[in-house]
Design brief:
The protein is an alpha/beta fold. The chain folds into 2 domains: 251 residues, Aspartate Aminotransferase, domain 2, CATH 3.40.640.10; 100 residues, Aspartate Aminotransferase, domain 1, CATH 3.90.1150. It is built from 14 helices and 13 strands. It has a 7-stranded mixed beta sheet with strand order 2-8-7-6-5-3-4, sandwiched between helices. A 4-stranded antiparallel beta sheet has the order 9-10-13-12. A two-stranded parallel ribbon has the order 1-11. β3, α5 and β4 form a beta-alpha-beta unit. It is globular. It starts with 10 loop residues before the first strand and ends with a helix. Its EC number is 5.1.1.17. This is Isopenicillin N epimerase. It comes from Bremerella volcania. One of its GO terms (molecular function) is isopenicillin-N epimerase activity.
């Protein structure tokens, strides 16, 4: 835990919300901020374009993509708004999502639907799941002749379920339907190869499981789809003089949003390097085992149930405490923190009350047992 800046007195089981940045990465982040302040004009106008290109190249290599297909953005909500507003969708068109999508991104499509007249169709994926094939078939029941875009998560935020996105993208491509994947919880938690996934659009954070600084994310658009994507914010990259033009129109239009602090973007290569050196496949598997341990220990308490088989979740484990009849899930979350210093999300979803346990390199077995003991003392068992 000393590698991170987290409060050692807190049992931090909520990496999934905002991540946590290792000291080495945070040091690089602050170094870039100091470089900016030493000579802002030189840094922003003469040095930044190449620095961003280098960061983007390393990120693209990490993701199995080409650097001209990836642009740095603050977060997936930004990318979802871009697609929702710019695609030529109108009356009679449908965007298909699952019932487990992240609220802010779902709102982006619902907002655009009100403005442009298309429909957002929400398809249920019943839990518990049994197989990838069953997930695809359940989701595909929502596809109609009017479906123009599928927007679905790689790993869902609410239910921590890993979805077979490559199979969904292949089936959509065969049907002539565009696909956008919300990968907020994927890179860093699992290996991501964008070429193999085959989505038209893919977005994710770098500040969650990759452990980069807050406010760093990416937006991938296949080269043959880039003509469909207009910038959410019009700035110098779009203008006729192309002041910040780089490799291509896509990057020029979407990456330069005006004056802002680019340090989080520039620290992404440091986060990738930290992962390669410190969060090896063995360390990742250890973290997954702690998530599974949390689920198994909690589910031994009467009235608490596991939600997914081990194969369908990674470093986010989910338990169902609906039978415990928690009246106020927000208050219950506060109780766990106030009484036990446990930081963990308690979620209301479809009349169910869920606890999502996130683990990472700093998680210890003692953290998991403290969590399990807190549930026993709270609920009995």
């Amino acid at each position: 835990m000393s590698d991170f800046l987290l409060d050692p007195d807190v049992v931090f089981l909520n990496h999934g919300s905002f991540g946590a940045c290792p000291r080495l990465v945070f040091d690089q982040y602050q170094r870039w901020q100091r470089e900016l302040e030493r000579q802002p004009v030189r840094f922003l106008q003469r040095e930044l374009p190449q620095l961003l290109a280098d960061a983007r190249r390393q990120l693209a290599e990490y993701l199995g993509a080409h650097s001209t297909e990836v642009v740095l953005v603050p977060n997936p909500t930004f990318a979802a708004n871009t697609i929702a507003r710019c695609l030529p969708l109108g009356a009679g068109d449908e965007v298909l999502i699952s019932d487990q999508e992240y609220g802010a991104c779902r709102f982006a499509f619902q907002y655009a639907a009100q403005k442009k007249g298309f429909r957002v169709v929400e398809q249920s994926i019943p839990l518990p799941v049994e197989s990838d094939e069953a997930i695809v078939e359940a989701f595909w029941q929502g596809v109609t002749k009017d479906t123009r875009l599928i927007f679905i998560s790689h790993i869902t935020s609410t239910t921590a379920l890993t979805l077979p996105v490559a199979k969904i993208c292949q089936r959509a491509r065969d049907a002539g339907i565009l696909t956008m994947i919300d990968g907020a919880h994927a890179p860093g938690q699992i290996d991501v190869n964008l070429k193999e996934i085959g989505a038209d659009f893919y977005t994710a954070t770098c500040h969650k499981w990759m452990c980069a600084p807050k406010g760093s994310g990416f937006f991938f658009v296949r080269e043959d789809r880039q003509h469909l994507v207009e910038p959410l914010v019009v700035g110098w990259g779009w203008g006729p003089e192309k002041t910040f033009h780089r490799e291509n129109e896509f990057i020029s239009n979407h990456e330069w949003l005006g004056t802002h602090d680019p340090a989080a973007y520039l620290a992404v290569p440091a986060a990738i390097a930290w992962h390669k050196e410190h969060f090896t496949s063995e360390a990742r598997e250890r973290s997954r085992e702690f998530a599974r341990l949390a689920v198994n220990l909690a589910s031994q308490i009467d009235g608490i149930e596991r939600v997914h088989p081990d194969a369908f979740f990674q470093q986010m484990g989910l338990i169902d405490i609906t039978a415990k009849k928690v009246d106020d899930h927000v208050q219950f979350k506060s109780r766990l923190y106030d009484a036990y210093k446990i930081e963990v999300p308690v979620i209301r979803w479809r009349d169910r009350t869920l606890i999502r346990v996130s683990t990472h390199a700093y998680t210890t077995e003692d953290h998991i047992h403290t969590f399990a003991q807190a549930l026993k003392e709270t609920f009995g068992g």
